[in-house]
Each structure stands twice: as structure tokens, then as C-alpha cells.
Amino acid sequence: MPPFTALPAAPVAPKKPVSDTRHGVTRTDDYAWMRADNWQAMFKDTSILDPEIRAHLEAENAYMNAAMDDTRPLQKVLFAEMKGRIKEDDSSIPVKDGPYAYGTNFVTGGEQPRYFRIPRDADPKDESARQLLLDGDREAQGKDYFRLSGIDHSTDHNRGIWGYDDKGSEYFTLKVRDLATGEDLPDVIDNTAGGGVWAPDGQSFFYTLQDDNHRPSKVFHHIVGQPQSEDRLVFEEKDPGFFMGVGGSLLDDVIYIDIHDHETSEYRILSTSDLAAEPKLVAAREEGVEYSMTEGGDVFYILTNDGDAKDFKIMQAPFASPGKENWTEVVPHEPGRLILSHMAYARHLIWLERRDGLPRIMIRDRKSGEEHEIAFAEEAYSLGLSGAAEYDTDIIRFSYSSMTTPSQLYDYNMATRERRLLKTQEVPSGHNPADYVTRRVFARSHDGAEVPVTLLYRADTPLDGSAPCLLYGYGAYGIAIPASFSTNALSLADRGFVYAIAHVRGGKDKGFQWYEDGKMENKENTFKDFIAAADHLVAQGFTAFDRIIAEGGSAGGMLMGAIANMAPEKFAGIIAAVPFVDVLNTMLDDTLPLTPPEWPEWGNPIESEEEYHWIAAYSPYDKVEQKPYPPLIALSGLTDPRVTYWEPTKWIAKLREKAPEAGPYLLKTNMAAGHGGKSGRFQRLEEIAFEYAFAIKVAGKM
Fold this sequence. Notes:
The protein has 702 residues and is of the alpha+beta class. It is 19% helix and 33% strand. The strands form 8 sheets. An 8-stranded mixed β-sheet has the order 30-31-33-32-34-35-36-37, with helices on both faces. Strands 7-8-9-10-11-12-13 form a 7-stranded antiparallel β-sheet, with no helix packed on it. α5 (490-493) links the parallel β32 (469-473) and β33 (498-502). The termini are close together.
């Protein structure tokens, strides 16, 4: 029996044609009206949304609810399973910094984290030693949406900057808290990017302001006790194509201003000994050249791809004169060994690298130059490097997990090479790794490229083509999807699913070239790789085409839209979360938050006719036709500044118009959230349970 029967009539969006001519090509968009003219203001006050648009979104939600009504009991079961795998009163292992150690914990039933500190050498399990700094649940009371950006303590440990977004629009408000009393000072800083960096004296801090187009374009210096209107502008980035962030060093003597797009970067630094000085340029931006900095006492260590170091190298420069002319090589470029990040401490330089698709942590003794590694033997695994909060230390912290192994947290002594297990992720409802199998297979793509695919399934799952499969993909911005432990995926594996991650081009899973081979004019490789992964899983008996549910979000949602157009017959269903599907229209609108910064990733169709045609060739919204599309659901957030709500809304309307006999096409718009969906930890589980219920329903496993 088809998964969706006896549905009510689907909403029909009125057509209001708007034509646009670029490079001699005229396109007509019947649904352009769904883009609210006052979208910037609406992100801050959703009550002003155009009533016609609101009525349409609410009609879509009602239709979606009717289509998914029979899954409500299943959603509750899935939610209970996922919640049962979470230690509700979980607590982190505090990180030592000066006289204290700082950590987070949750309370049973709590949605939001609580931030605390204990005396440096206190027992982390001694709850009586904890001083509560910030209670997320208390701050979130009465708000439909609430997301904390954390709390950053001053060098003297007397004050903290904390931030929150209560609309999902990613405009964060900052406040200053007296950590001794727990009271907030009068300071309120609006429209920030979410955090601040203290000056060493704890009397002032630096932050990034988001402009009206949601771009972090200005760095300000705020003196505690003064109104925001009196804050000094430290630096303004005039190019709308660049993001900007502000950070500090472990030694508290430098403020970093990091300016970058997706392929070019520039740093300016400010000495904390002269807070009123102009930031000093390190190396002027050069198109295609990236670099990042960390301080190592009398030197800076610089991670860069300069000089055709495609997979990056580490340089050093004198602290007093860090200009590019003074860079000397410390860790050479090695093709196929991608250096992802680096950190410096008093006696050691460390970096996280990926080789042959697997991560490892490298440690170098700064005096002797001797190097050693931290690596693991599993076929596929994930490493997280959190380092340390203090400069003069031999102890760093890292995490390890695999698709079958719960996350493990270690302290590692870089001098003695001893590792100490601090914590293993608890699964209260029980978990036996031996019940599951994780594998990495390789799918041959259209041009011979070998695409890694990470698999998780129960050991007793029949591999005869009868198993359903959820195939996840992203493939953009060089982001690699880790083969890490997911308690949520077990709910699918326990129902006979093969859970698969396709590490398609556009990520850096196999090095920087893997990224370049999936961007700009090569973007279609991303889509073809994903289809090749589906083909391989079917050919090897893991699943069948009528049992594969594809899933991706944001740029991965673009992937979902593209494969829906290219190979709809190879998927039983598609889940597209906040999908970036209206690529051409968005890249032609330079007033939107991410458009200018995104041109290096996709192309600039305003200036370049060639790049216009690249995007037009795959833009999912533009390529919708009469095709046998499978059941499809798009998830959206009304205040999402990254993938605006009208993209999935227009896409669903056009699918329904062009291929009315296929589908059905469902749209779920969260009217009180943005790009990341709901913010609470259990609220997020409800959303995942909903998505998995759709997959299970489509697979016929209800």
C-alpha cells in the first residue's frame, strides 16, 4: 500500500509572475511573492509577516500534519527511545583555567545547559563544590525559542559575557554577569554575532555586530558600564563578501580579527597593551590564499595554503613582526595529508590532520622538533581536539568515537604520552557495540572517483537488498561529515535500516582537492557522487532503490533537490532540512545575508555569464519538471537567515504544480525558529523523531 493515502487537498499557491533577465536569459518566477519585502524586520518581529504569506505557511503546516497524523504514535516511541539514550543529568568534565575549572551540566528534564565552575582541584563529582554561573532553563522561561551562545569569563574570573538568541534569527543579545553575585550588570549589547572577547583587565570587551543584512561587518570595543551607543568602532569590513569574527589568545596579549570568505582570509591583530590602537594587518588578502593564526609566546604559528600548499602547511613568524615576509616553514605541505586546525602551547605545537579519510592528532615538541601521533585502529572513526584553556600545560583534551563506539573523553599528556580516560558517554537504556557493524565502503562515481560511504547497521540485518536505508549527504564548504557515534541513528538501525553517510565531493573528507572537485564549475560532482553511493549500496545488496530515503540539510538540502531532479526513481523518499534549493535567485540577490560571501563557493551569476549558466544547470528550484518525484518533505524555519523560509516554500509549490501526480510534497515550517530548528535538547529530539517517522513510513516499516 502507498505510504500516503486519503490525503486532503494540498494547498495551491497563487501564481504571481515576476520576470528577470540576466545575460540575455529571461526567467519567470511565479512564486517570488513569497519573499516578504520586510524580511529583515520580520526576523526580529515575526508578527509583521505579510498575512497572505502567513496563511499559506499555516495551510502547508496543516496539510503536513494531516499527512503525518498516523505517525504520531511512532514519533512518541522514537522520541522516548532517543531520550532514553541520553543521560538526562549529564555533566561535562570541567576544564581547568587558573583557580577554577569550568563546565556545563543538565538537570533531569532540562532543555538548556547550565554553566558552572568549581575550585581548580575540587572533585568534579562533588556537586556541593559547584558554583552555578548561568542557568539556561531559567533564562529561557516564557520563550518559544531560546539559544545560548555560552558564557566567557574574564581573565580575572570576576565577570562573564553571555549571549542569547530568542527568535532563531541569529541576532544575539549580550549581557555582562557578575560571577560572584550571579547578577547581570546594566550592559545590554544587541544584534551581535553571539560572543565577546575580554580585555585582560576585565573592564572591557570586543564583539562583532551584525548589520541589517545579517552580516558581521563591524568590530566594536565596549567598556563595561557605558551604553552600546558609545562603543568604539575598532574595524569595519567594507566588502559584503567577507565574514568577520573576533577572538583572543591564551596569553591574553592579542585580540585577533579574522576576516574571511570561503577561500580567502586576512588577519588583523590588536595588542592588549594598547586597546585604543589601530589593528595591525598581518598579511593582506590574496584571492584563494587562506591562513589562520595561533600564538606561541615569542612566535605566531600560521596554518596556510599559501604557495600552492593545497593541503596546508604550518609556518611561524616572530611575534613582533608577523608579516608574510617573515614566515618560515615548520610543518611542510604534504599532498594527501590535510591539516585541519592547529594549537600552540608552551612546549608543544599540535594539529589535527586527515589522511586517507581518517583523522589523527599530531604533537610536536617545540624544542626538539620530535613528533608523534594519536590515532586509532577502527575502520572509520571520529576525533575531536579541544586542547586546553591554559598555555603553560602539557595536558590537552580530545574525544574519540565511532559509529558503534560511544564518545570517549581523554586527557593526554604530551610529554609522557599517557592518555587518561575521563568519561565514556553513557547510554542509560543500554548499548552493546557488538550488536552493530560499522563499515566504510567505496562507491565508484561517474568519473572513476572513489566515494567513501560509512555504514552502520545491526549485525543481524540481512544484506540481501531487503533492508531500508537512510542515506545522508552534505558536500559543501569543505565540511567533512565525521563517522561519529549517534544514539539517534540506533533507532533506525534497530528497525532494520542501514544508516549510511556518503562522503561526497564538496567536503574535505579526502583532502582539499576533494573539496575543490565539488564546488563552482564542479558542483555537479557532489550530486553524481551521492547517486553513485546509492547505486553502490544497491549493487552490493545493502538495500534497494525503492527502500532508500535520502536526507540532507542546508547545502545538503540543495543536494536533495538536485538528486530529486536527476534521479527521482532511485529514492523512496527525500528529507530536505532547511534546503538551499533556490540557488540561482539567491545568488542573484546581493542584499540577502549570505549571497556575497557565498559567491566563491557557487559562483557569481550577477557578474559572470559563465557562472550564471553553471548554477542554472543544477539549481533545484529552476530544474523542477514533470518527473516521478518520490514522497518529499522540506523543513523550514521562519526566521532562518541562512536559508530563508521562502526557498523551501517556493520549491514545494513548484513541485506540486509541475508534477502533481507524484510526491506527495510536504512542508513543515517552524514559525518560532531559524536555521537550526528548535533549540532545546529534547525539542531537537522531537524534530529528529519526526524526520525518522517520515523515513520509516515511506519505507513501509510502521
